[in-house]
Amino acid sequence: MNTEHFPAAHFIKEIGRGRKGARALSREDARALYAAMLDGRVGDLELGAIVLALRIKGESVDELAGFLAAAEASFAPLPLPPGPFAPVLIPSYNGSRKLPNLTPLLALLLARAGAPVLVHGVRRDPGRVATAEIFAELGVTAGDAADASEAWAHGKPAFIPIDVLAPRLARLLALRERLGVRNSTHTLVKILQPFDGPALRLVSYTHPEYLESLGALFLLPEQARRGDAFLMRGTEGETVANANRGQQVDWFHGGERTVLIERDPPADAVLALPDTDPAATAAWIGAVLRGEVPVPQPIQEQVEQVLTACRR
245 is in which domain, residue-wise? Predict the structure, then answer.
């Protein structure tokens, strides 16, 4: 790792003029800046200024592309698993607060159908129920790349925490605890493609402006070569369909954009869901997998569309 101090003042001057006065960095400058941040070559004072300036300004498409290139170069890629399906990536960095977190159900249904599923995310999130907590109740343990291969060989989803998958990114994620706000890394981890070949990314957004910026990113040629992407409004930030009202899903494939699933109208009857705590959610998911409770229709449709898109 290069430990030489990175001169960040010029970059801060460009992005730190506020929402109206700031100028976006070029893709090359964005990559250089974020690589220095990942390497720990940016001082704490400058790092805080960069994080807050980007949060106020918002990231351009070129900045996201440059940041993502630096992020994916900061860790060893995962080998593609064999089989008829491209791997499915499910980022889980929000968890749930008001609704049960059904990301594990989506992952388990896809894995049961034969798709190699990689969930990556945080181990816990204060005030929220993290996917890792529900997985633990269901016997899906956190692991590394070798554990993931073992899980796929047995038809199970794999969960790799971000501190194992990409430790340098995890360090920047942890700035939230010190600064009190999210930063660009929270967007980047949701769009990571850690495999050494094409994969299907399931990506969610929470703020409307990201529908367009991420959509433009996934249409870039280099992103199209990395595989397909599904983009949807998150269920409390998670990339799983709302059990009672499915969201619109945009599919990015081969440099094209298609509305794959239309947004559902309000449901006449609301499906009874479990409590949000990990044990109750895991017990309900177990009942669904055993056929005792029906799979929520929006999630079943999501599963079917994912399987169609990731079939090689």
Answer: 88-310
